[in-house]
Amino acid sequence: MNNHAVITTKGVTKRFGDFTAVNQVDFELKEKETLGIIGPNGAGKTTFINLISGFYLPDEGQVLFNGVDITRLSSAQRVALGISRTFQLVHVFDNLNVYENLGLSYYRKRENKPFTFRMFTSRLWQSDIRRKVEEYLKMMDIAHLKDEIVGNLPLGSKKRLEIAMAFVSEPQVIVLDEPFSGLGDQEIDEVVGVLKKFSHDKTLLLIEHKVSKLEDFVDRLAVMHEGEIICCGPCESTLNDPEVRRCYWKLNT
Ligand SMILES: Nc1ncnc2c1ncn2[C@@H]1O[C@H](COP(=O)(O)OP(=O)(O)OP(=O)(O)O)[C@@H](O)[C@H]1O
Ligand SMILES: [Mg+2]
Asked: What is the pTM of this model?
């Protein structure tokens, strides 16, 4: 894929005290590709995407977005530029319904400013917001759940809602931290189904523990081990890489 790099990291490093969680990582995420990062518990995957999305500032190195240095920008500033993410444990408002959660996400991104709850509920039914929310409810196969209180939903539906919330503001890049964690096989297939609708239209970066869930739809696969990306390339070549075989398979068989 010859597309330009949307996200670039140059030597990014994050330490917690004496421990180096992410160590001198050089990485490129290309426009409209779907890239998976696998790696064992504690490899530094979540820390790495926290550096990309601005939840942590690196101790060393740079993060670029379309070639522009964003290393010092906050997560809110990065969302405004077009970098959206989901979390390993779902982040949704359990006491609101599905429509309200999605409407809130869209409204917040569009207005790009803090909101009061009253402002939100009064504007939520504006026709432009309604059109967008209904479009994404359909795309994520959760239209039938729109009036359900989110706290009552099974995890698979919550995950699809959270993914919808990341996509509805139409960012350029979406970073998903373990979108399949805690889901059963059928729920995983449903989430994969909605992600496939967006792959090659959006730029996607996914973190996952197990390669089997990613193999059939990522363009490139990276392996993280002890804070470093030890290999990144087409799935087959990554999985046959000698260092990956030594470090990753040993730990996962
Ligand atoms: N806020 C923190 N303070 C101290 N140590 C941390 C912090 N966040 C992460 N770590 C440590 O950094 C290492 C990498 O953690 P990280 O959460 O990035 O791993 P991960 O690859 O996402 O793992 P998992 O697959 O379990 O989600 C771990 O050893 C973890 O204990
Ligand atoms: Mg993690």
From this structure: 0.90
Instruction: Write the CATH number of the domain with boundaries 1-82+171-253.
Output: 3.40.50.300
47 touches ligand 1 (CB under 6 Å) = yes
Contact 18, 41 (CB under 8 A): no
| Residues 28, 29, 34, 36, Cα dihedral to 10° | 50
Q: Tell me, in angstroms, the distance from the centre of ligand 1 to residue 184's CA.
A: 24
Determine the residue type at 13: T
By mean pLDDT, which of 44-53, 141-150, 243-252 is the weakest? 243-252
Query: For residue 253, what pLDDT is reported?
Result: 45
* 182, 190 Cβ separation under 8 angstroms: no
Q: Is the CB of 45 under 6 A from ligand 1?
A: yes
Is pLDDT of 57 > 50?
Answer: yes
Q: Whose CA is nearest to atom 31 of ligand 1?
A: 42
Residues of the chain with CATH 3.40.50.300: 1-82+171-253
Task: Report which residue type is found at 186.
Answer: Q
Distances (CA, A) of 3 to 27, 32, 34, 60, 128: 14, 8, 12, 27, 33
Q: Classify 157 in phi/psi space as left (phi over 0), alpha (psi -120 to 50) or beta.
A: alpha
Ligand nearest to the CA of 14: 1
Structure-block tokens of residue 18: 């004496």
